[in-house]
Design goal:
By secondary structure, the chain is an alpha/beta fold. It folds into 2 domains: 155 residues, Rossmann fold; 176 residues, Argininosuccinate synthetase, chain A, domain 2. Helices cover 42% and strands 20% of the residues. It has a 5-stranded parallel beta sheet, with helices on both faces. A 5-stranded antiparallel beta sheet has the order 10-9-8-13-14. The chain has a 4-stranded antiparallel beta sheet with strand order 6-7-12-11.
Length: 406
């Protein structure tokens, strides 16, 4: 990365205040850039966090620092489809951090255009998925702007970053040195340390404000979540905005140790990756939403909805959100939610989410018409006998032709 000319070029950096992005500020300033930092609130920021990040930006000598609230946009464009799609990567991971990068990319481009910057920067390394998410998003949203990635381009280690910052009189805590921690609406993700291998797990203490199963309350907590067209609208009858519901369930779920797991899967680059995460709200809502869908969807609605959602989740996770096909999938997913309205009774207890009951005015389970294993009003024994004969006919013919029934 060459030093810029005497006239400083403006560069807008996605800034978290952590080790990597702090290094980026110091390094880019040394290269002669006028650095503007942008922190996007995608959930999990306290007032104290906001002040600390702003203070860190000032200490690093940025020319401007912006804190932008992106929570509603994150929910409306991404989280809502993760809930409606029951999307869990590898069966466990609700795409916690990846979606945030798309919102952050959009916001730094908006700031860059407003302040006449022609450079953008992010602090991703050369190993994970986030670098691809940022690169693809920025190339779509700002194709004429040059993107700089100091950590990736220099292939610098975290220890070397710490030493570099010390020379600039910037100190970083020991915890930040070892682990990369992201706190957002969809939960907390932890990389580094033990996640670099496939056997050991980071200690519970690395997840901030989250109880271990042993320290969770000894009694279960029950509540009713109400949904309208696939999205949560109230808890125990109290109407709440979408972001408020996520915040409430993240806090409550953390108390009961809900949604903690480790995801091991394929990265966009084709190598294996592993991450520790705690996603209380997402896990609770997806569990509840899944059961409500079972009650109101037909067999083939469920089949095709699950098929499309699986593909949509994969595209979203792997930085292909801007592919036009994604808008088509969203129309389909939205269509499947027309009758996903009702109440779900759940219980939280020491890391488990149990669905105890579900009801909807659109329920396809009508005990007045038919009850599984008992008498019903829609058919009699002769009807079932005829159905069974016809239903299994292809299997009988195949078995005969192949000699399997002799």
């Amino acid at each position: 990365m060459k030093k810029s000319s005497a006239k400083k070029n403006k560069i807008v950096l996605a800034f978290s205040g952590g080790l990597d992005t702090s290094f980026c500020v110091a390094y880019l300033r040394e290269q002669g850039f006028d650095v503007i930092t942008v922190t996007v609130d995608t959930g999990g920021f306290s007032k104290d966090d906001i002040l600390k990040i702003a203070a860190q930006a000032k200490k690093l000598g940025v020319s401007k620092h912006f804190f932008i609230d992106g929570k509603v946009e994150l929910f409306d464009k991404f989280v809502s489809f993760i809930i409606k799609g029951n999307i869990l990567r590898g069966g466990v991971y609700p795409l916690s951090a990846g979606c945030e990068r798309l919102v952050i990319a959009k916001k730094i481009v908006e700031v860059a255009k407003k302040y006449g910057a022609n450079y953008l920067a992010h602090g991703s390394t050369g190993a994970g998925n986030d670098q691809i998410r940022f690169d693809v998003s920025l190339s779509v949203l700002a194709p004429k702007m040059k993107v700089l990635t100091p950590i990736r381009e220099l292939a610098i280690s975290r220890n070397d970053e710490v030493e570099y910052l010390k020379k600039h009189n910037i100190t970083i805590s020991d915890d930040v040195q070892e682990y990369s921690i992201n706190v957002g609406m969809l939960g907390i993700t932890v990389g580094g340390g033990e996640t670099k291998g496939s056997w050991d797990a980071p200690p519970d203490k690395v997840i901030p404000n989250f109880n271990s199963i042993d320290s969770a309350p000894a009694k279960p907590f029950g509540m009713i979540i109400s949904f309208d067209k696939g999205l949560p609208i109230s808890i125990d009858g109290k109407k709440m905005e979408s972001v408020a519901i996520m915040e409430f369930l993240n806090t409550l779920g953390a108390k009961y140790s809900i949604g903690k797991n480790i995801h091991l899967g394929n990265t966009i680059l084709g190598i294996k990756g592993r991450i520790l995460f705690a996603a209380p709200a997402a896990v609770i809502l997806i569990r509840a939403h899944t059961e409500l869908e079972k009650l109101v969807h037909t067999k083939w609605q469920s089949f095709w909805k699950n098929t499309v959602s699986e593909f949509y989740g994969g595209m979203l996770h792997e930085a292909l959100y801007f592919d036009p096909a994604m808008r088509d999938f969203e129309v389909f997913i939205q269509s499947t939610q027309k009758f996903v309205s009702g109440d779900v009774k759940i219980s939280l207890f020491k890391g488990n989410v149990s669905v105890e009951g579900v009801k909807s005015k659109y329920s396809l389970m009508d005990s007045k018409v038919a009850t599984y294993g008992e008498e019903n009003l829609l058919w009699d024994a002769r009807d079932v006998s005829g159905f069974s004969k016809i239903y299994g006919l292809s299997s009988v013919i195949a078995a005969s032709a192949q000699g399997n029934n002799k």
